[in-house]
Design the sequence.
């Protein structure tokens, strides 16, 4: 749906981003409390529960955008969001406080982030990500989930009775918080799509550009908020796990689900610029996290500058 008044379009964008942020905060809070109540560690919560929760905006935006506008919206939002997660979210978080990378994230989860990026580029190189490709992505998601659950079971068996007694109880309020967050995410994604698509389309920008910029940045705000707050509090494992997990779910879950609904076309320009940029940022993140098992403030500045350069090169 297009809205004629630029003011209305701008208000929809601002309102959509605000609702996405509020919804993600509710979802992160409720889901995080529920996970901690059953004894999950901070790094595991970051790469699973919170990462999946903060991926919800990308899912809603990509699915609704693909169905109501074009698949360029969905593809642009995912590729742009993954690049923003590494360049902006990880970069800004590291500038606030150097980030320690847990051995679990480094050895068990990052390989899946690399695999997800390679799968998207490989499957989309022929100009289309279709139904069968989506099944491949979802299969990889099942393998990743099984790997995480196996690790969780190992951690659960190591929890002592005394530690279990200190765990918080599962509360109905946490469940209500999760539901409220999902409702806000659905409404916020709808507003963001309508406002962003209308405003930039009226200015002559392509759907792909809209997805890579306004929607990608808007849907990355939950990851940015969660990771920055975690970095500020000194919970670096949470920040890194959130970025790695979000990038995995963005591709394997979101693109996988969208392709079951409608095929995604991949333009030659995407294969020539956005896909290489995604691989470059992913490789850069792996290199920085692997060197010394931490991301320093200098690394954060490099990542943030790289993201700024990416946005500059996107301009028509």
Sequence:
């Amino acid at each position: 749906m297009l809205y004629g008044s630029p003011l209305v379009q701008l208000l929809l964008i601002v309102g959509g981003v605000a609702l996405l942020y509020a919804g993600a905060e509710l979802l992160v809070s409720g889901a995080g409390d529920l996970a901690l109540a059953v004894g999950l560690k901070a790094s595991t919560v970051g790469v699973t529960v919170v990462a999946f929760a903060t991926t919800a905006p990308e899912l809603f935006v990509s699915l609704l955008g693909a169905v109501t506008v074009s698949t360029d919206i969905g593809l642009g939002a995912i590729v742009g969001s993954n690049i923003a997660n590494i360049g902006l979210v990880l970069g800004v978080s590291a500038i606030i406080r150097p980030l320690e990378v847990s051995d679990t994230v480094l050895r068990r989860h990052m390989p899946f982030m690399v695999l997800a990026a390679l799968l998207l580029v490989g499957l989309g190189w022929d100009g289309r990500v279709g139904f069968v490709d989506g099944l491949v992505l979802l299969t990889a998601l099942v393998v990743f989930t099984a790997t995480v659950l196996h690790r969780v079971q190992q951690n659960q068996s190591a929890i002592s009775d005394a530690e279990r007694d200190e765990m918080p109880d599962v509360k109905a309020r946490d469940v209500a918080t999760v539901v409220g967050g999902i409702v806000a995410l659905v409404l916020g994604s709808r507003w963001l799509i309508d406002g962003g698509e209308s405003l930039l389309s009226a200015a002559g920008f392509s759907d792909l550009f809209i997805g890579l910029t306004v929607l990608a940045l808007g849907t990355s705000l939950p990851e940015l908020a969660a990771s920055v707050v975690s970095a500020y509090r000194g919970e670096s494992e949470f920040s890194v796990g959130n970025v790695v997990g979000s990038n995995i779910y963005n591709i394997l879950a979101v693109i996988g689900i969208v392709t079951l609904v409608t095929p995604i076309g991949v333009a030659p320009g995407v294969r020539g610029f956005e896909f290489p940029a995604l691989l470059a940022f992913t490789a850069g993140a792996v290199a920085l996290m692997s060197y010394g098992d931490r991301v320093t403030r200098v690394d954060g500045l490099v990542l943030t500058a790289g993201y700024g350069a990416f946005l500059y090169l996107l301009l028509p």
Q: What stands out?
A: Residues 47 and 300 are 20 Å apart (CA to CA). The beta strands are 99-100, 128-129, 264-265, 294-295.
